[in-house]
Specification:
There is one protein chain. The chain has six helices and 13 strands. It is of the alpha/beta class. Strands 6, 7, 8, 9, 10, 11, 12 and 13 form an eight-stranded parallel sheet that branches. A five-stranded mixed sheet has the order 1-3-4-5-2. Helix 2 (about 90-100) runs parallel beside helix 3 (about 120-140) and helix 2 packs parallel to helix 6 (about 225-240). The longest helix has 22 residues, at about 120-140. The radius of gyration is 20 Å and the shape is elongated. The relative contact order is 0.15.
Length: about 240
């Protein structure tokens, strides 16, 4: 059985003792019933796994001694930024979780004209923090040692005004003339724009096109917003990344 793996936001180095974050400590102590001497793996987003052993297990605090560090070669050669229009219910959580599992490099929540969920101010920041924790949990599960950052929500015009830079700017449209395999990728940085339930409006697709986005179709069927993002990322990883066909 492999050692449990937890995210730790602080500095980690072999030979030094560290205290597990509260949520990791609770899971280790109460759910896994770990004991002193048990092996544990921590990661902080620097691309390494840190193998250690528990030195103390208390109700309020769990400590571990880091023994050795190992590079974790789990990152895709593609750097895919997913600009995802905010969806309702648990669809956004699902999309972020699975996108991180499939190797997305960063997540940009987008408020579009057809977005049902409207976020602003403190509420928007709380949702961003929640989505960041979803991304962290997905890294723990999938073995990634780099943590994709979830940015603060922006409206589509605000985000486009920042001129997102990438080697390929791609959005999906059911009637687009091109498909992904027909695109000629000139670099590894990709920005993928996905609409909400109901899709992007024609005006938004035109706006994205004016900023260099190419519309592609995934196939003959109309996909839900959470399906579209994941199908596109999976296709990109198969065509140009580290998925095997």
């Amino acid at each position: 059985m492999s050692a449990p793996r937890f995210y730790h936001p602080g500095a980690l180095s072999p030979g030094h003792e560290t205290t597990l974050p509260d949520n990791a400590a609770i899971h280790a102590c109460k759910a896994l019933r770990m004991q002193v001497g048990d092996a544990v793996i921590l990661f902080n987003g620097d691309g390494h796994d840190y193998l250690g052993k528990l030195t103390s297990v208390r109700k309020q605090e769990v400590n571990a001694l880091m023994i050795e560090a190992h590079p974790r070669p789990t990152e895709s050669p593609l750097k895919i930024t997913l600009a995802q229009a905010i969806s309702s219910g648990d669809r956004m959580d699902f999309t972020i979780q699975k996108a991180v599992e499939m190797g997305a490099f960063a997540i940009q929540p987008i408020a579009s004209q057809r977005s049902v969920v409207k976020l602003a101010g403190e509420r928007a920041e709380k949702r961003r923090e929640h989505w960041q924790n979803v991304a962290i949990s997905a890294c723990e599960q999938s073995g990634r040692a780099f943590v994709p950052q979830v940015a603060s929500p922006l409206s589509l015009p605000e985000w486009l005004a920042q001129k997102p830079a990438a080697d390929a700017l791609i959005t999906l449209a059911p009637n687009a003339p091109q498909t992904l395999p027909q695109l000629k990728l000139t670099g590894s940085n990709i920005c993928l724009l996905i609409g909400p339930e109901g899709g992007l409006t024609d005006q938004e697709i035109d706006m994205a096109a004016q900023h260099g986005f190419t519309a592609v179709r995934m196939g003959p069927r109309v996909l839900r917003t959470e399906t579209a993002a994941l199908a596109a990322i999976a296709s990109m990883q198969t065509l140009w990344g580290d998925f095997t066909a």
